[in-house]
Design goal:
about 25% strand, alpha/beta, about 425 residues, globular
Length: about 425
Amino acid sequence: MEENSTQQAAQTDEKLKQLQDSILAANIPQLVLVTISYALDLRSSDIHIEPLKTHIRIRYRVDGVLREVVEYPSNLHPAVVSRIKIMSNLKIDEQRLPQDGRADVTTKDGREMDLRISTLPTVNGEKIVMRIQDKSRKIPELSELGISGISLKNLNTALKSPNGIIINTGPTGSGKTTTLYACLTKLNRPEVNILTIEDPVEIQLDGLNQSQVHHDIDYDFASGMRCALRQDPNIIMVGEMRDKETANTAIEASLTGHLVFSTLHTNSSVESITRLINMGIQPYLLTSTIELIIAQRLVRKLCDNCKQPVQTSPEITELVKHALESLHAEGEIDPALLQKMQFHEAVGCEKCNNIGYHGRVGLYEVFKMNNELRKLIGGDGNMIAIEEAAKKNGMVTLEQAGVIKALQGMTSLEEVYRVARKAE
């Protein structure tokens, strides 16, 4: 195992050298190809090529955090931009307007990648961001994503419902799509008709009927949902509830016997209810259709090779105790871990490229609808009261889920509070 990681480190060092050599030689095709190849080796999700005043810098987003990789002179940039535009069928002579495109890339080891390319005019030249989608990536099981305990139990129960709405919420890049794909994979059987309306279709799955929206011809989420209902579906996944029309169509689908999955951009599961009410959806429709709301974040996992125990200050200990005092879910955490109150910190070694983290794991907050919550939502809709009632019914908040993973040695407290807010 150690030998493999040493070989991988040597290969990535070699890629960096190739990238630097192609810059020195002004070999543009090689520069672009190695930039993408090196990004794949480092498990990057996005490549940023950014023109600054005196030079161009390339940064990779690895495990959710941007890191600078290399710089090249400004005089090479027009050729680099043209090369990437040709790859993604964009207009080479249009430099004043933003453009979006895509390209399919196959690596030397046979991995198929889908690149989503976005250009943006800036005062120093065109900035390019390439989002990498690994087509050959296997969809993980729900338990592998980081969801566990009562949250996993409630989600599995909701997946058995014949109808209802399951909403996944969180910021861009928090793993919502992967979680929904994991749910759909679990439900994907020959006797079930699953339709998805996406923007874009990120991973193609056998057995699913996946449709991509096209806003330029008015084929959006709402019209896609209406068409999907005429396709005799059992399960529908709509990429995002962006407006009242899409939300109303999802509610209509749920009331007519379909299981509907969708996403929202809110900070917590309870805030999703506020957002839908603000869109103009009647509370009684929400209480009769919503089965489950998932809020999620991704945190970086500590490198098992170099993580070290860290002494916790009295303030941090108090913060953790305050976070866990409202945890009503039985068996969510080993009492011995609570007694020990031991956390770890990132150090950095050769295996993790001296970052201290390797890979990511999800934090999940799962809000399960019940009669008590229906009464509260249908009444004055006080969000604080709704959240307290949900916690009493066993909901584990994002902060609590993060603290539990930190106590288990998976991540650091610093990482948890980077993505989850502290309880008041």
